[in-house]
Design goal:
411 residues, mainly alpha, three-stranded antiparallel sheet, globular
């Protein structure tokens, strides 16, 4: 009886002894091999090539070939992930992040079936991932490793992909994806002095904790952090999620977040974008101080646009291809390719703050400050885009009158 096919999977083809061919990742599909052009260290890129190959090869169908429920042992996880990537994941608020997580899943689960999902294999996946460097690292040898919470988020995508497949092609049984315990969030926030230090670092200064003095950084460093100043101020003043701020545009957009300077409103999602159930993005009225900053930044960007146009035309460029700054956050005029990460970590170090401070702390800080000022819970929740329950559970203890009646009763 012939052995069942394993389906498309990655294989590291070793270099030839005569050195005429270097080591390279290839895609094995039955008796065929398809080159990826990726070397041994380019595992993530090879995983993306595998995902693209699977998507281009076929629209997945139940391996059993029947209209009835399929046995999980007949369904490749690669097929499940492919269907999820084409359908649900493509409509996610951050499709790029979802694709990266699916690529990590394919590297481990690509040649396995849905029946292989059990507690031990999920634990093995977590053990595998926490040894891997983060994707954005320049030097994998010294880079931070993927955390167990990062692996948990990827397994959540795997569970969602299985559910998405099951809705289209029912399974005789649906395996349970076992997740590592969820870490308790401390919901830490910056103090006002720490926020000021972080903002100063984003303006091109470095703090020395030993002497308590600040050192001015070179002009190139100051220019490289220009977008961080905008990110930090918008985050602190509005509590907007760090994944939304880089998407802000200067003009109205049906598909992207944008700023209305005339009305003083930030629309956290385009008019044609669907509201997410768990990550709401309501509009927010811009506070006066932030509005002044935004108007000043807008004037600077419009002046830069005029200069770009003049330089482009002088160089013989076509008026139809004039480069234009459209994003509130940009790097030398170019929109940010992803989220604010590497530059933010550098600013945190130069501010002398704990490495635990992440871009999401801006949101925590805004919510904490609102509670400390005793803003009504429903109003603060609408302002930050949180649910009232989340705000009360996670930040309510910062209120000045927290447990006031209990203290008064025991006075």
């Amino acid at each position: 009886m012939p052995r069942p096919t394993k389906g498309p999977r990655l294989f590291l083809r070793k270099a030839r002894p005569d050195k005429r061919q270097a080591s390279v990742w290839v895609i094995r599909d039955g008796t065929k091999e398809i080159g990826t052009g990726c070397g041994p260290s380019e595992v993530e890129a090879a995983g993306l090539k595998l995902a693209q190959y699977i998507q281009s090869k076929w629209t997945p169908q139940p391996a059993s070939g029947t209209n009835g429920p399929a046995d999980p042992s007949d369904v490749l996880i690669a097929d499940v992930i492919s269907l999820y990537a084409e359908g649900k994941a493509a409509k996610a608020p951050d499709p790029r992040a979802v694709r990266a997580r699916l690529s990590a899943l394919l590297e481990f689960w690509g040649d396995k079936t849905v029946a292989d999902i059990r507690r031990s294999s999920c634990e093995a996946y977590v053990a595998h991932r926490i040894l891997q460097p983060i994707k954005m690292a320049k030097d994998p040898a010294t880079a931070r490793r993927v955390t167990d919470q990062g692996a948990r988020r990827e397994l959540e995508d795997l569970s969602a992909a299985i559910g998405y497949w099951h809705d289209e092609h029912p399974l005789t049984r649906r395996p349970k994806v076992v997740l590592p315990p969820k870490a308790e969030s401390t919901r830490d926030a910056l103090s006002r002095s720490e926020a000021a230090r972080l903002l100063l670092a984003s303006m091109g200064w470095r703090y020395n904790p030993a002497t308590g003095k600040w050192k001015r950084l070179p002009k190139s460093s100051r220019l490289n952090r220009a977008h961080l100043r905008r990110f930090i101020l918008i985050g602190l003043y509005t509590g907007t999620r760090p994944g939304v701020i880089p998407k802000l545009l200067w003009s109205e957009s049906p598909t992207q977040a944008w700023v209305d300077l005339e009305e003083g409103i930030i629309y956290r999602r385009g008019k044609a974008e669907r509201e997410q159930r768990t990550k709401r993005r309501p509009l927010v009225m811009i506070p006066g101080r932030l509005l002044s900053h935004l108007r000043r930044w807008h004037d600077l960007d419009m002046a830069a646009n005029a200069q770009l146009r003049e330089n482009h035309l002088k160089a013989g460029g076509s008026p139809a291809t004039v480069p234009t700054i459209t994003s509130v956050l940009h790097h030398g005029g170019r929109p940010l390719a992803g989220r604010v990460r590497t530059g933010f970590e550098g600013a945190v170090r130069d501010a002398g703050l704990s490495e635990d401070v992440t871009p999401h702390w801006m949101r925590h800080t805004c919510a904490t400050w609102l509670m400390e000022r005793n803003v009504q819970t429903w109003e603060a929740a609408g302002y930050t885009g949180m649910s009232v329950k989340t705000l009360e559970d996670c930040y309510g203890h910062h209120r000045p009158n927290y447990q006031a009646n209990a203290r008064k009763a025991l006075r």
